[in-house]
Amino acid sequence: MDALSAIKMMTGSTVTGPSNDLTQSGVTPSISTQDLQKINSDLGPQSTTSTTPVSGGFQNLLTNFFGEVNDKQAAASDALSGLMSGKNVSLHQAMISMEEASVSFQMMVEVRNKLLDSYQELMRMQV
Hints:
Number of helices: 5
């Protein structure tokens, strides 16, 4: 799948470009090695072609997720206490951080509920 197809699928809109015209006419576009190296260097550390193994992938994913939720809760608490103590904290920024913390907490609860439902479904399976 090329990049234009991925964008079309994610946005649901029509995206046209020169490579789209080439693939429809049956001609496969070629990318030089120099262009690929430039793209990889532009991506930098976000490149998905990592050679380091992921250890404890799901556990680390959940730990990072819970850590981010905790950080947002702490940031909201700091913003609220700064607002109440008269520090130079914008009301808008305090409200935004509180809403971010609320939404992330609700998402964490829903993920937990789905994980529990999945676990209970596995326990109900007959072996």
